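Researcher: Final request for today, and then I'll write up notes for the group meeting. The sequence and the SMILES for flavin mononucleotide follow.
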Amino acid sequence: MTVNLAVSIGKLKLKNPVMVGSGTFGYAEEFGDFVDLKNLGAIVTKTITIKPRSGNPSPRTCETPAGMLNSIGLENPGIDKFISEKLTELLKIGPPIIVSISSIGDPKEFITLAARLDKIKAVAAIELNLSCPNIKEHSRLISQNPKFTHAVVKMTRKVTKKTLIAKLSPNVTDIVEIAKAAEDGGADAVSLINTLGGMSIDVKSRTPKIAMITGGLSGPAIRPVAVCMVWETYRKIKIPIIGMGGIMDTQNALEFFMAGATAVSIGTGNFINPGLTMEIIRGLESYLSKNKLSGINQLTGSVKT
Ligand SMILES: Cc1cc2nc3c(=O)[nH]c(=O)nc-3n(C[C@H](O)[C@H](O)[C@H](O)COP(=O)(O)O)c2cc1C
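Model: Predicted protein-flavin mononucleotide complex:
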């Protein structure tokens, strides 16, 4: 039985719904030996800011039960170098390139970045990282406030017709309220979820295990939180959801589709198994075929409650 893995997110057409989570795949250069990159549904870049950033001091990551903490601090080459060096290479690979952007301080930086990317025809979509927990310049995140979320999406929407994805933080009381604010502001999709705030202490030295003291928790430990947020949000918004958080195999990805995701992103799982994305694409095909389902769309929101 031939099955159809293709999905649409805004104007974006993906041949399959498996992409990579921002910041966990670099600019794809290190993964070419393990993954047939052209088979990915889409590639989401590491978050780009206007100026280059060297990121936070080390140690920036540590292992935790069923997950990891990171505090990278948006290390990136800045938009100029990204466009002149990284993007050119990324575009040669083939799948749609979704560029993740963020502001440091002034939210108007989103406008500057989106307006620049809008002029580059080959950029498939823009993901607004409204949820990076690891930069010392921010005490609160944009996506912890529905008004700010709405305002940033709306002002960015004005400068680009490209598919606009709002990436949200799980560190909130009501994710649905924030997702609705993004939808009302003009987002074509939401990405759920970024990392959960976390801290880990080395009891011998009585010091935090990462230099910035706290960081973002990712990996299987956060999966039930992510699946729950996708499910809650799916019932209340009309735009598609890109689900992520601890996907380590096909079964995990299926949970996200059943909860309401249209596509999924693989993050921490790439570090453990660089070929995971390809295994999941094959796994989804086989699941659909075995269950006599012709398209992945039939699974979205199909959980029986
Ligand atoms: C080392 C690391 C770096 C990350 N960098 C970014 C980033 O630059 N921008 C972003 O939007 N999310 C970033 N994330 C969050 C992931 O894209 C993803 O939302 C989160 O880790 C949950 O998925 P996972 O459990 O599959 O990793 C990062 C995550 C990790 C582990």
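Model: The pocket of flavin mononucleotide is lined by residues 21-24, 46-47, 70, 72, 74, 100, 129, 132, 167, 194-195, 218-219, 222, 244-247, 266-269 (CB under 6 Å). The two ends are 28 Å apart (CA to CA).
Researcher: Thanks, that's everything.
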